[in-house]
Amino acid sequence: MPDILPVNETGEGFTIPYFDQWMAMPVIIRVAVVFIGISTIFILYIQFRIWFTRYKGYLLNKRVEKVVPVIDALIAEEIFMKSETGQKGAPHINFDAFRIPLFANHKNKQILIDRLINYRRSFSGSIGNHFKQLYLELGLDKLSTKKMNRRSWNMKVRGIRELTGMDVSISDVNILPLTNSKRHELRTEARNAYIKLSKNEPFKFFDISSEPLLDWDQIELFKTITTTENIAIPNFARWVTYSNNKSIISFCLKLIVHYNQQDAAPAVIKLLETKDHILRAEAINCLGKLKYEPAEAQLRHIYSNQPLNCQLEILKAIGRMSTGESAQFLRQEFMYSTDFDIRKNAAMSFVRNASPEYIDELMEASNDENKLILKHSMNPLIKY
Amino acid sequence: MHSILQWIAAFYESTVFVYGSVLLVIYALLALLSYMAIRVFLQKETYTDYSDLLSSDLAPGISVLAPAYNEGLSIIMNVQSLLTLNYPVFEIILVNDGSTDNSMEQLIKEFELVRVDFAYNPKIRTKPINNIYRSTNTAFSKLTVIDKVNGKSKADAVNAGINVASFDYFVCTDVDCILDKDALLKLIKPVMDEQSKRVIATGATLRIANSCVIDKGVIIQMKPPRNLIARFQEMEYVRAFILGKMGWSFINCVPNVSGGLGLFDKEIAIKAGGYDPLSFGEDMELMVRMCRYACDNQIKYAIRYIPTTLCWTEGPANIKVLKAQRTRWARGLAQLMYAHFKMCFNPRYGRMGMITFPYNFFFELLAPLIELSGILYYIFLIVTGGVNYQYAILLLLFVYSYSIMITTIAILWDQIAFRHYKSWKEVLFLCSTALFEFVLYHPLVVIFSLRGYYYFLTGKKHSWGNMQRQGFAQVKQ
């Protein structure tokens, strides 16, 4: 191993301190030494990053603390006070008051957008419209549209959110393709926006949607549909009958229940023939919640061929219908089923269907366990 | 003879070298994976409005199971805190596991409970139920209290709760844990957000509550514990949850959902047989059996973790309690490995069999044993004059600096995501604890783990894992 390293210009050899010792070390030890150095530098760097991350957060908070009161003061002065003074017709709002150097900075502009969306969400009617007007007058919609046209899905979602938040319409050509995007977050946002903003057929994407509606998407869509004003609610039986997307069918069943669409019941009954037992159970559940009595006989009829989850749903559905016609059937299931859950659900529905005398009679005829189930079902303190 | 000994020594050294190197690489990978998982989570979180779920008719119901044994000092406050959780459809099932204090009397009086004829269906076998209570006051209509014969384990109490649970999902927690008000909303989200797999369990980050400011069961301000032992645990929890479990979650290899807080699919939990009352690590044991059941029945499953802190627990503040806790955990791990060893390197069990189980076996179960053997070998080398002290110190420094780096990365990820502590100084205070972990805390954990293995081998008796509580600091009124 050489202990003299390159010769310098004067021709004298020189040595690097500890080089010999370094080279004499086993490779593993040398690697370890290098890693000690790397780790130490990394630890210091991480400490700096922690400090920097916190500092950035602190600066952002400071900025928000500085800008938000200015926005609030302007809004109070220009929108709230002018609306309150009861000027005849629409109050004259001086939008130029918002064209101040503070909002030239794009970060401050973003805070302004967020704040306006927040206000728009909290106020409806004419005051709410003033916020929309302000947003449009200041050209903030152009910024949001720009975001929507960016390549990053993240920015697209942001843009859609802002436009939807301000009820600014987006053309179907731009939004509809996004409702089938592979990116889940973008797809969800686009669907919500489409329902909220589409002037023509807000539920059109139900026809073209091939991607599944996840449970969480359903929660969001359900809220959008049920809280958006002036939305034309279609008969959801259309998709129950024709859609190939099971999650759309499932979602439509929930909407049918929410809007109590009795005329959709025949389509739901047709769904009882589906091979998918989870979807079938949902259809039964829907019929029960609609209290669609004409289906009761058919439910009893198909009962014996169903898997457990569908049988339980049939028992619950009959309980909800409360016609009294199935009391004998429920009694039978309660007395002779070996499955605890079937007996419990049959008892709960029986209590809703049968007369007090009939219940007493069943109590008499029951064994100890069944007596307990009946008492459980009759106890008003027990909900489930 | 001499050459055989030399060969054994060389073999041992090479094995330990490979073992250590693989472990270091795994930690580096986990750091990377956890970063990616946290980024994905934060992106999704930006566009999530939990109030949609809060006001929805479509929210799935959740049963919250809280087992309690002699928690009379705080039980009322804890139940009140659970009743204020934000979620549209839930029930609280408190299981009084034969407490010998006045817990039951306090509950009956405070919540106006009466005995009801409840059709109890023991899908999982437990010790007998004495009575089931419901409240006559509609304000407490979400509460059900089970009074049962002591089953000498948390597992038996939770199983009784599962038998009574009405909904498809249950959250298991300890009655003395403090939950975030939105814990249920956030735990159910990964279940509802999964496209192709069935999420059988969801977990979230747990933190130590010892020095946090608490008011009426709610965390007002998070602070790193002042007590050194508790602070070591806080650091350990950040590393285990933020870096470890988030990393494993990214590749769907979560080994365990903590007993302090976890949401489970009730159907799979029951079919897997519920919690094992004889296990010391009942949470991990159930998780393994649920995965096993899913694999055996061709159910595509996922276990998810979220980095948000949703639960605070009181960590042991002295060595005696820490010893009892860690001994129990180690014993549970040994039990689990022994009971399910067939899963190890068994491709039938997918990632659980090929990644999670081997990792747990080699790097969780064997680690204390390998460390012990290393120390003994070192002593032998010192005695025989076979140690090159310069190299030994360098290697030690390497491991030391690497471990500090990993811990600091975990704290950074936590800060990037949440910035829980009020000031940077508090973060630095926690980071500085990593400097002493290697010499003060880690040896203790190794010793307690070995003690646990010893108890496993000798079969010491089983009891409820209650620890002596010191109580939380309450905000001054």
From TrEMBL, chain A:
It comes from the Bacteria. InterPro entries: ARM-like, ARM-type_fold. SUPFAM superfamilies: ARM repeat (SSF48371). Keywords: Membrane, Transmembrane, Transmembrane helix. The keyword Transmembrane helix applies. The chain crosses the membrane at residues 27-46. This is HEAT repeat domain-containing protein. It comes from Taibaiella lutea.
UniProtKB/TrEMBL annotation, chain B:
GO terms for molecular function: glycosyltransferase activity. InterPro entries: Nucleotide-diphossugar_trans (IPR029044). Gene3D superfamilies: Spore Coat Polysaccharide Biosynthesis Protein SpsA, Chain A. The chain crosses the membrane at residues 16-38, 361-383, 389-413, 434-456. The keyword Transcription regulation does not apply. It comes from the Bacteria. Signal peptide: none annotated. Coiled coil: none annotated. Pfam families: Glyco_tranf_2_3 (PF13641). Belongs to the glycosyltransferase 2 family. This is Glycosyltransferase family 2 protein. It comes from Taibaiella lutea.
